[in-house]
Structures are given as C-alpha cells and as structure tokens.
UniProtKB/TrEMBL annotation:
It is a multi-pass membrane protein. Residues 1-22 are annotated as: Disordered. One of its GO terms (molecular function) is cellulose synthase (UDP-forming) activity. It comes from Linum tenue. One of its GO terms (biological process) is cellulose biosynthetic process. The chain crosses the membrane at residues 320-342, 354-372, 448-471, 483-501. Mn(2+) binds at residues 81, 105. This is Cellulose synthase-like protein E6. It is found in: Endomembrane system. SUPFAM superfamilies: Nucleotide-diphospho-sugar transferases. The keyword Transmembrane helix applies. GO terms for cellular component: endomembrane system; membrane. The lineage of its organism: Eukaryota, Viridiplantae, Streptophyta, Embryophyta, Tracheophyta. Pfam families: Cellulose_synt. Keywords: Cell wall biogenesis/degradation, Glycosyltransferase, Membrane, Transferase, Transmembrane, Transmembrane helix.
Length: 530
C-alpha cells in the first residue's frame, strides 16, 4: 500500500488500473468538468461487511468501508470541516446508524486497539453511561521532539486543565480523537426518562449495496440541508472556525455530560505536529480567532451556558476563548517596559521599597509553580522553557492578528476569511533541523517581523539600560524589576537573535527582516525619547 501511494504521489494521478477497480474513483473525471470544488455526490461501498467474503488474510471479519465525497457546487457554501462531518453523519445513518461515532482528523492514526472498548466502558456504564455524550482523548503527536520545541503537546494543559474541565462533566470537544453518542451529536436533548442503553443498537439493513449508495448520495447533496436545522440545532455548528468547541459546549448545554480520558498505558491516537514555527503560529492564529469569535457570539459560555453549565466550566471555557485577548496586555509588558527602561521611567516599585515584595512574590510564585507543575507532568526543564518562549511568541504575534481580525469582522470592517489549512509536509533539511531542535524561520512574513522587532526592542532596552543605569547610584534598585523583565524576555528570544545575526542556513531570518526589525525598534526608541 505504501508503494502504491508513493507511486501515485510521484505521478500526480491515480493509475488507470487502480481507478478502474473502484467506480467511485471513475467518477472523478476531468472530461466532465469534475473538480474538487465542483462535483456530484460520490458514494461507494468499498467493503460490504455483510458479505461472506468480507474477511482478511486470517479469516477475520472486515467492517463495512464506505468512500464518500459529498457534493460541492460553487453556489453553495460547503462549511468546511463541519459540513463534511455532518454529511458523514447522515451517510452513516443510512449505512448502519451506529450508536457511537469516532471522529479523527486525516493526519491521525490509531495507536491502541483497545481504545474503542475503553470508550464503550463509559457509554455502557450502568450508573451514568446513559448521560455521556462523548469521550474525548487528548490530542497527542508522534513527532514531538524531546524538549517539544514548539510547545505542540502542552502536558500541563492535557493533564491538569482539560482533566479539570472533565471533572465538571464538561470536557472540551477538540475535533479529533473523540467518540460521540450519535443521538447527542444529532441535537437530541438529554432526558432522564429515556433509557440510554436502549440506543446502543445497530441498524439491520436489507438494502443492496447499490440501493444504500443511491440513498446516501441524496443525504450528502448540497441541497439536502436547505430549510433544515443541520448546522444549527443538529450536527456540528456552522459559522465558526472552531466548530468543535462550540458544538461540544452546545451538547453539554443540552443536558449531556462529557468525559476527558487520557489512558495511562499509551496514547489512543497520534497525529502529526507542526514542525516549523510559522505553521505552528498560523495554526494558533486560526484557533485563537475562532475561540474569540465564540466569546463574542451568542454562544459565549457566560451567557449561553448560564444555569446550564457549572460556573467552573464556564470560566474554564473562557480560559481558552480569551486567548486572543491576552495579546495586548502582553505586548504592553514586552514593549513599554524596555522603552521606559531606556528613558529612565520606572514602571514598578524600586527594590528597596516594601511594595517590591508583592510584585516579586507574584512573579516568582507563578514561575516556580509553573515549573514544578511542568516537571510533574513530564516536561524537562528545557521543554518547560521552550513552552514559555512559544507562549510569548504566540501572544505577541498570532493572537494579535486573531484579536484584530475578529474585532474587524464583528464591526463589519472585514469579510469572513476561509479555513486556513496548515501544511505539515516539509523538506528533509527542515525535518533535520526540527529533530535537532533548531527553530525554523525562513520567511519574511509579517509575523516574523513583529517577533524580531519585539526581540530587538528588548535587547535595546536591556543593553541601553545597563549602560545608562549601571553606574548611577541606586539606578539598579530603581529599575530592578524592569531589568529583570527585559532579561527574561531577551533570554527567551535567544533563538531569534541567533536566526537574525548568526545563522546562514535556509531556516534563518532573512536580511530584510533584520533591517526592518532594527529600524522599527530604533524608531520606537526615538519616538519614546521625543
């Protein structure tokens, strides 16, 4: 199979002999003006599990396997992933109407054959199984480096925060690695009068394969959803880039509970983590923008979830929905502190003041707590430090764009953008640098100009501040906290300085980024002086 896939990728097309084996593939014909954005419904039962010959090499039964390509037409909005999921839900209803649906992203694979049985243990629990809407596994990756260079697998979030949300029965639905109860996903409200165990029945279907295919084609057509509640009250919610989170919250507000399950033995599902900084920041921009849209919409958990969700769960949701809102407070600390240090403007109490103690305590206690918690969750010290850096970069770049774009859309100043897909295929050199834990830049994007400018502002502030205040009696005491803050930011940005001034590989920051960053940082310092 691997050889056939690689051969097809090299040729750029499906070989005729493979195409002829499947009538579903045969319908993808450019001679009939069929493209990926303009085509009819295509459904093929590749393996019919009801047939006697549907067995593997060892004689074990194979499950029914169905190939589905929902209809797409230029005049109909296809609603991205949410639309695809809803089409699959309807098609599977016709095929088997299975009570439990497993949702996986295309870049994830099963890592534990017991995962399905584990999920069924929750759904079939005699005491509370009837109220469980979905069982969510954490999103884990197989290609994370030893020290998690880009903070792709935040262990503290997985092991502490999301587990805490699960304690309220309000585990977040994160769009993959999730087992759903069909009736909850289809918009049914929980009722204690309904026997949840009775819904665990499979559909006995006497239709032929051709009849099932033709019936399913209607269900995945563009016009099927017109005048229905699909995308509103039924299935995944439309109109939000993070349809998974808002759909999960809506299900919980319908009275259902959800489980967050992180197996101790091994990850149930593994995916592919972004292996360049730019891809990681683009991904977080999309997430933060979608989450902030939920907060500003009618689905805000403090409003929509009022009296429907526990207060702790509402605040837990807000922790993620307000990612974008952390951008500007962070930028204030990153930009104002070093510029004021250059001009001798103290922003914090001097070291000799009693008011220095609460500031130092809050920062010190938070840092120590975070480090200890990180080590307990499985981070290395370097891995924890990498996470602090990546969070800083996200808040000073991705989340800024997310905040601005979301507010602009709310005010009608910008049109809704498309779904930004993050590519995860990279060259061999990029993969090698990632495995060696060398940060990948390599472009002149606006994001990297902001990152480099913030790094240079803090470098100017630290160097200029030391030159100005080191020799002044009481100067270091007066500006101590600002020196400390700038030192930490400069330390976190060391890979940025190396990429700006010392590296010469393809992953360094281009020369034009260096000139723009130095120029903008110098301009900011001059304006502050004026």
């Amino acid at each position: 199979m691997k050889s056939r896939i690689e051969t097809m990728a090299e040729k750029g097309s499906v070989p005729p002999e493979t195409r002829s084996q499947h009538k579903g593939f045969l319908q993808w014909s450019h001679h009939n003006n069929v493209t990926k954005r303009n085509h009819q419904s295509i459904v093929e039962i590749v393996i019919d599990g009801r047939e006697e010959d549907a067995v593997d090499e060892d004689g074990d039964r194979l499950p029914t396997l169905v190939y589905v390509a929902r209809e797409k037409r230029p005049q109909f909005h296809h609603n991205f992933k949410a639309g695809a999921m809803n089409a699959l839900i309807r098609a599977s209803t016709e095929m088997s109407n299975g009570a439990v649906i497993l949702n996986l992203d295309c870049d994830m694979f099963s890592n534990d054959p017991d995962a399905i049985r584990d999920a069924l243990c929750f759904f079939l629990d005699e005491q509370s199984g009837h109220r469980i809407a979905f069982v969510q596994h954490p999103q884990q990756y197989f290609n994370v480096t030893k020290n998690d260079l880009y903070g792709n697998s935040p262990l503290q979030t997985d092991k502490v925060e999301l587990a805490g949300m699960g304690g309220y029965g309000a585990a977040l639905y994160i769009g993959t690695g999730c087992f759903h109860r069909r009736e909850a996903l289809c918009g049914n409200k929980y009722s204690s009068k309904v026997d949840g165990q009775g819904s665990m029945n499979w559909k006995s279907n006497d239709k032929t394969a051709n009849e099932l295919e033709e019936a399913s084609k209607v269900l995945v057509s563009c016009s099927y959803e017109e005048g229905t509640q699909w995308g509103k009250e039924i299935g995944l919610v439309y109109g939000c880039p993070v349809e998974d989170v808002v759909t999960g919250m809506k299900i919980q507000c319908n009275g259902w509970k959800s489980i967050y399950y992180r197996p101790q033995k091994e990850a149930a599902f593994l995916g592919v983590a972004p292996n360049t900084l730019e891809i990681s920041l683009i991904q977080h921009k999309r997430w933060a923008e979608g989450l902030f849209q939920i907060f500003l919409s009618s689905y805000c958990p403090l409003v929509y979830g009022h009296k429907r969700l526990p207060l702790g769960a509402q605040l837990g949701y807000c922790t993620y929905l307000l990612w974008a809102a952390t951008a500007f407070p962070t930028l204030c600390y990153l930009v104002l502190a070093p510029l004021c240090l250059l001009q001798g403007i103290p922003l914090f109490p001097q070291v000799s003041s009693p008011w220095f103690i609460p500031f130092a305590y809050v920062y010190g206690a938070r840092t120590i707590y975070s480090l200890v918690e990180g080590l307990m969750c499985g981070y290395t010290v370097k891995g924890w430090w990498n996470l602090q850096r990546v969070v800083l970069l996200r808040r000073s770049s991705s989340y800024v764009f997310s905040f601005v774009d979301t507010v602009a859309k709310q005010l009608g100043l910008s049109k809704a953008s498309g779904f930004a897909v993050t590519a995860k295929v990279v060259t061999e050199d990029v993969r090698r640098r990632y495995e060696e834990e060398v940060m990948e830049f390599g472009s002149s994007s606006t994001t990297f100009i902001i990152v480099a400018t913030v790094a240079m502002v803090n470098l100017f502030g630290l160097v200029g501040g030391i030159g100005k205040w080191w020799w002044v009696d009481g100067g270091m005491s007066l500006m101590g906290l600002q020196f400390g803050l700038c030192s930490v930011v400069v330390g976190l940005n060391l890979p940025v300085y190396v990429a700006l001034f010392f590296r010469r590989d393809d992953g360094c920051l281009p020369v034009d980024v260096m000139f723009k960053a130095v120029g903008l940082a110098s301009l900011a310092a001059c304006l502050m002086a004026i």
